[in-house]
Amino acid sequence: MYINDIGKELLENRRLFLSKRAVQSFGGYADQQLRRLQNALARDSYPQAEKEIFMDVTLSHYPLRDYRSIWAEMHNIVKDYDKIGKRNKKKDDDHLNKHAMHLIRLFMMAIDILEKQEIITCREAGHTLLMDIRNGRYQKADGTYREEFYDMLRKYEQRLAYAAEHTSLPEEPDYRRVEEFMMHINERVVRDEI
Fold it and tell me: C or N terminus of the chain, fewer CB within 10 Å?
């Protein structure tokens, strides 16, 4: 792999960009992955009668303008719920296991950022575990996941919470330093110093 001088400078200053915001970024994304996994499992395993949305409403002398807003929101919920799209089709085991693996990988990366101040994308240390998840080792015959997977997930959630509490990273990046550094890099690129 070839890395030019500007690339080297970016790598040398990568910690400028790190902060506790990684908890929200990675943790939020991990939470989305978990919800996707849970929704796919629920959508694929529950009978249609259990997937139906019901509501009980009694309104009296309610402003029409407010009711219109409620109705629009309910309409959007039903539309999104019924939408047949790529993400909403029945997930096969390969896709479910990929979501499960990605979920754990996000926790690993977030913990590395908080504990080691490093972004490790090549997961050598956890590679075997991640491949076991992706290859279905934690999936039951009915397509759901074994309790062992959820125990692992809870441990990663706890470890992330602990790392967030005890990290030496600042709350926010030093935006002034980041901006100065980016202006320096942009100036080098404009001057064709690549």
Answer: N
